[in-house]
Amino acid sequence: MEDARYQTGLGALEKITGSSGSAVVESLKDIAPDLADWIIQFSYGDVLSRANLDLKSRQLATVAALTAMGTAYPQLKVHIQGALNVGCTKVEIIEVILQMAVFAGFPAAINGINAAREIFQQEER
């Protein structure tokens, strides 16, 4: 059972984040291997792999949540890239970040826009 969760999680991690998510997980293995496993098994294997919501919707929800948190800039950038990877448009990503100005405040939305700018500029290179 655990192996199936892990494999499902690895597949979802790769599909959503490409190599950036794998790099994050690998960077944790020397100091917190359990956290690395939880990310793969629970976050990606159990939650992000559920069939009731498509990956685009999940990534937009994730971008919204990370923007609203205002404390997860590196993770926000990974998930903005992930949103692009699963087919979200730049316009959709910007709209979900703009909506966070209402619920999380203008500073959170500005930080989210800046994260999006960085990712979009990387995409253009």
TrEMBL record:
Pfam families, alphabetized: CMD
Residues covered by the Carboxymuconolactone decarboxylase-like domain: 33-118
Source domain of life: Bacteria
GO molecular function, one term: peroxiredoxin activity
Coiled coil (residue ranges): none
SUPFAM superfamilies: AhpD-like
Listed name of the protein: 4-carboxymuconolactone decarboxylase
Source species: Desulfosarcina widdelii
